[in-house]
Amino acid sequence: MNQEKIRSLLIDNARIYVQVADAEDGVPEMAIGDTFIYAIGSDGSPKKMPFMTIITKDYPGFDEDSNLNIDRGFRVNIELGKEKFAEVFGFSPKDFSKNRDSFDFTTRDSFFPHPVYGAHGWLCVVNPADNTDSELVSLVEFAKNRALSRATV
User: How many CA atoms lie less than 13 Å away from 87 in the CB half-sphere?
Assistant: First the structure.
C-alpha cells in the first residue's frame, strides 16, 4: 500500500487534518515530505500531537532503526494506546524495553512497536504491502476512532 492510499483512508473526514509537510509549513527541514495526521478538536483546531504519521526518511541521531534511507522506504506510525498495543503484541507498552531486542525494525511489511515510541503505545510498519494491508486498514480505522473520541474531550 502506498502513502497516497494510506492518506486516502483518512483525508475525506472533516474531523481529520492530514498534513504533508512542506517548506511553507514552517516545519524543520528534516520533516519535509513526511505526513502528520491529527484529529480536529471540538474547538475546530487540530490537536497538538498527531495520532498517526508517515515518515519517509531516517532522523539522524533520533530515529534511524528502520533504515528508511537505504531503499527510500517509508514507515507508517500509529498510536494505538495501551490496550490495543497489548492486544497486538502480547505485552504492554511499559514492557517494550524488555521486548525490544526481539524485533528487527528494518523488516518490511511487518508490524512491530515503534522503535522510539513503542513505550507509549505506538505501532509501525515499514513499506506495508500484501502481508499487512488489510490489518493496516483496520488499525488505521481503530486509531482514527480513538483519536476522534479523545478529541471531543
Answer: 7
In angstroms, rounded to a whole number, what is the distance separating the alpha carbons of residues 51 and 38? 6
Q: Distance between CA 119 and CA 81 in Å, rounded?
A: 10
Q: Cell 502480547 appears where?
A: 90
**Locate cell 488489510: which residue?**
134
Round to whole Å and give the CA distance between 53 and 117. 12
- How far is the CA of 31 from the CAs of 6, 22, 35, 64, 97, in angstroms? 18, 8, 8, 14, 26
Rg (CA), the chain: 15
User: Looking at the predicted structure, is the pLDDT value of residue 116 above 90?
Assistant: yes
pTM reported for the whole predicted model: 0.95
